[in-house]
Design goal:
Radius of gyration: 15 Å
Largest sheet: 7 strands, antiparallel
Strand content: 35-45%
Helix content: 10-25%
CATH architecture: Roll
CATH superfamily: Hotdog Thioesterase
Shape: globular
Oligomer: single chain
Number of helices: 2
CATH class: Alpha Beta
């Protein structure tokens, strides 16, 4: 497996974001994968991981499936289905993949599971391949040492 590029200030993957999750994402065949722990500092209700952070993780895993192909996407649309509350302290496993491509538009699917394999949430998304000045801005914000190739 190879690590997928990351962005220095990103809340989910950025190593330089002091309040971020600092999750590492890897390309595993046609999927992007990651592991992290539902840190209690990101709870919503007591002992329950915040749904907005769950959504951010799912957005990131789906975008990383595209980034693994050296294509720089922007989120256009995302739907999250929450199956069960995520307890804080739980080890989480993420998977994301591309399900379709139409020109610059990518459709994706992602899931977040616990250590027992139970699915806590899954998502679908649509992403647009960045072009022109916005693509250049994305490339400029890559974390130093994060190889875009």
């Amino acid at each position: 497996m190879r690590e997928i590029v990351k962005y220095s200030g990103c809340f989910v993957c950025g190593e330089q974001n002091p309040i971020g999750l600092k999750v590492h994402f890897y390309a595993d065949g046609e999927e992007a994968v990651a592991e992290c722990v539902a840190d209690p500092q990101f709870q919503g209700y007591r002992n329950i991981f915040h749904g907005g952070v769950v959504s951010a993780l799912l957005d990131e895993i789906m975008a990383k499936a595209i980034l693994a192909k050296q294509i720089y996407p922007l989120t256009a649309e995302m739907t999250v289905r929450f199956k069960k509350a995520v307890p804080t302290g739980e080890r989480l496993f993420l998977k994301g993949r591309i399900t379709a491509r139409r020109g610059r538009m990518f459709e994706t699917a992602g899931e977040l599971a616990g250590s027992s394999g139970e699915i806590f949430a899954h998502a679908t998304g649509k992403y647009i391949e960045a072009a022109g000045p916005i693509r250049n801005a994305l490339l400029e914000s890559l974390e130093e040492g994060s190889d875009p190739q």
